[in-house]
Amino acid sequence: MDFSKVSSKWLLFCFLLLLVEETKGENEEKRQVYVVYMGAAPSDSKDFLRESHLQLLGSVLRRGEKAENTLVRNYKHGFSGFAARLSEAEASALRRKPGVVSVFVDPVYKPHTTRSWDFLQQSLVIDSTPNSDSVPSAATADTIIGLLDTGIWPESQSFSDNGFGPVPSRWKGICMEGSDFNSSNCNKKLIGARYYATDEAPFTPTALSNANSVRDEQGHGTHTASTAAGNSITGASYYGLASGTAKGGSTGSRIAMYRVCSSFGCPGSQILAGFDDAVADGVDLLSVSLGASAYYRPDFSEDPIAIGAFHAVAKGITVVCSAGNDGPTASSVVNAAPWILTVAATTIDRFFESDILLGGNRSAIKGKAINFSSLDKSPNYPIIDGGSAKSNSSDVTSASHCEPGTLDGSKVKGKIVVCMHSQSDSTKTIKLQGLQDLGAFGTVFANDMENYVASSYNNFPVSEIIVQAANDVFTYINSTKNPVATILPTITVTNFKPAPVVAYFSSRGPSGQTRNLLKPDIAAPGVNILASWIPTSTGVPKGQKPSSFNLVSGTSMACPHVAGAVATIKAWNPTWSPFAIRSAIMTTATQVNSDKAPLTTASGSAATPYDIGSGEVVPTAALQPGLVYDLTTRDLLLFLCNYGYNSSKISLISNNTNGFSCPSNSSTELISNLNYPSIAVSGMKQNEIRTVNRVVTNVGSQDETVYTATVNSPAGLDVKVVPNKLKFSKSYKSLGFQVVFTMKNSSSQGDLFGSITWSDGTHTVRSPFVVATAN
């Protein structure tokens, strides 16, 4: 026997075995951050929660491994739980542990990226309602708005504390110091600031992003905070555009910023930490302009925003969230839990016009964009359409859309290029970079649909038109030997009609989680909103200093408009629940535009409750709603039963000690009975009858008053309100009624919209409804 050969084979075998075991070990050790959610926090044992969390965590780790080394953060104020670095096997083990509601990988959400308040005041529908500008600052000075966002720029004039009294004594928050932020950056206006440091890539501090500070590096949080509660600042503008007074919805309110986002996104574990601290700090409401995309819609028990909001609302804190920017796709709305006030986006009566002048003394073509063009104001520049500038290797269609790599630089250089654009194309930013690289002097984008959003192109001359207007440009180019044009710098046009219009990007209903709850709830301005911004050297027009303001669009901008309204309502009605406040906002909304015509979408179609919820917010009207639809925590627990959760899971979520259990007849159909200010019924069949229950509470006159119901219903659907009169008195402040839906016509298919309105001659309390027929 040749022992040398045996020895070699044995060594090779041992080496391979060691390699396999090493690889196996590496796979077993592969860890990422998980969130472990354990429901409501016990009210009497917060000091022991961290220790109990460590014990639970240690029970799934390898022997000798310290739980403290894997723990990322601990939640103990609004709810119980923790975030930790775990392997999949360890996470699975925790899911099986008693007392655990859910365990999920830490998701990364994104932010849903002046005159808007003046425009909302013009929408006043009750002349006797106080104007928000006339509300004494003392009435709102003790209202504290918390924001979960990208941070804040404390030096902005929007956050000066001139004229403010002492910080409310109930405030328990802090001003966290960081590498470029200290306690002196807080004041009697900006009363709280927290950030959430981590050593998890890519959220660790870098040369490009300092995560160890509340200071805003993106501008988003500064913009939303000033929209919600910024001071009134005269002479505000974006380099001369949208000039006027910039102000928040509740200028007298205090601000607390919780920086949960960096340039890489917003980790769910940090979002939950922000909610947890905000509950303990004592905020009155939370404005959350961020969320998941429509393509990732987790269950409520695995959604950091839904979890945090549930426990905040249980503590009396109203939570306002953006609906998302994935419109106009149907069923794209996010942040759709029934305890969240979900906000869609609309335009205001302002237009940013950048005209295109063609040669031959032709009439100017009205375009839109934000640019500070330095081109001559006479049409002296050659103009060409993208299709005529195609390269030898590209096709005309792609070139006409100016897709990257499809154009011949020699045909583009020194010219204004007209590019078709549709939603399925490469982004305009990508196209524009390619055109600039080829030496184009300017660009005209011809959009396949109107979107009412003026994009910012800064110093490069760009204007946007719709396809119909582009036909005039193409006719001129094709009929002229040497066509020329110019693009004029942007001007601001006010009193633009119609307004509001639903923003094309605003996410739409129905909710993908339950068709028996109507979302979004409300709409508010979210297009080209002027508000405070961080100093930046990007896009500054020649000869000017960086602007302290910016024009930004998104449901992110709509959300703080409603948060500002909530703060004022809360100040006037401090004992109202978050649900009563939501009801006041929803039932007093308007459904007509500045032309007194029904609201429309950007495409021109009639807006439905899937687009705008109850309608456009009217902040002043919401101060005197007359009636409100209120809810209790028990109502939310019944919702969870009907949604499909079992009693044991709900008991953990609510820390229930009163023996709550789900009714035996729980079903998704019964979600329609949640005492919501809107009504949604799904799966209706011909001749089927559905009855929905509601209760309203009189918060208006304390004298005897009678409300009468009127119904606006579509053909084929019979709707009755029983009783159709409600008589309130000092003894009877809350009264119930039923809405009976009967499907009469089999030809009525799809989503049928209507409304129920209660009125006493002074107050109008409107609730939209949608009845979805069975497929």
| Low confidence ranges | 1-6, 9-27, 122-137
Counted by DSSP, the helix tally is 17
Largest sheet: 7 strands, parallel
Strand content: 25-35%
Order of strands across the biggest sheet?
Answer: 7-10-6-12-14-15-27
Derived structural class: alpha/beta
Helix content: 10-25%
Q: From the alpha carbons, calculate the radius of gyration and give it in angstroms.
A: 29 Å
In total, how many beta strands? 39
Principal-axes geometry comes out as: globular
Mean pLDDT: 90
Taking the alpha carbons of the first and last residues, their distance comes to 79 Å
Pfam families: fn3_6, Inhibitor_I9, Peptidase_S8
Signal peptide: 1-25
Family: Belongs to the peptidase S8 family.
Domain Peptidase S8/S53: 142-594
In a few lines, what is going on in this structure?
The chain has 775 residues and is of the alpha/beta class. It has 17 helices and 39 strands. The longest helix is centred in the first third of the chain and has 27 residues, at 3-29.
